[in-house]
Write a structure and sequence with these properties.
The protein has two helices and seven strands; from the N terminus they run βαββββββα. It has helices spanning 26-34, 128-149; strands at 16-22, 43-45, 54-59, 63-73, 77-87, 100-108, 111-119. A seven-stranded antiparallel beta sheet has the order 1-7-6-5-4-3-2. Helix 1 (26-34) packs across helix 2. The protein is globular and about 45 Å long. It starts with 15 loop residues before the first strand and ends in a 10-residue tail after the last helix.
Length: 159
């Protein structure tokens, strides 16, 4: 009689995510996301609002990344692929390279939900905690405020 082999179900990968809702339209959320300078601190070079655009982000000597806009569906989705990255505060300075930064936009009743995912940035990655805190500020704070009020908070106060 053949023996039965039980396989363990694969564990779900928990990518870094943040979600919020606002009293604005999906189109307004989409426009704000693509106005990267309006909500993300640092030096941003290049265009950030057309499919295929490549832009760089730099914050002092702490963080550099180069993103390509690989998906742009008005009112629904924005995806940036990180072509190159450098983080000064972790052992593997290139942890972001090859990851994807995704903004999914959807209607939830009379509100708009923005679901942010940094695909590939998982708890096992050294910068997860610090990056989760920083993304939390920029996504649920600065970006949310830019969408809701027209004014983001791109420059976190230095302490």
């Amino acid at each position: 009689m053949p023996s039965t082999i039980e396989l363990e179900a694969p564990t779900a990968v928990e990518n870094l995510t943040h979600t919020f809702t606002v009293d604005r339209t999906p189109e307004e959320a989409f426009a704000a996301i693509n106005n990267v300078r309006g909500w993300w601190s640092g030096e941003i070079e290049g265009s950030t609002d057309k499919l295929g655009d490549i832009f760089t982000y730099r914050y002092k000597d702490v963080h550099y990344s180069k993103q390509e806009i690989t998906e742009l569906i008005p009112g629904k989705r924005v995806v940036w692929h990180v072509l190159d990255g450098y983080l000064s505060f972790v052992e593997d300075k290139t942890e972001w390279t090859g990851t994807d930064i995704i903004f999914d936009i959807s209607r939830k009743g009379d509100k708009t939900e923005v679901h942010f995912t940094h695909l590939g940035l998982v708890p096992e990655v050294e910068c997860f905690s610090a990056c989760n805190s920083a993304w939390g500020f920029y996504i649920t704070g600065s970006l949310r405020n830019l969408i809701a009020t027209g004014k983001g908070e791109p420059n976190k106060k230095e302490q």
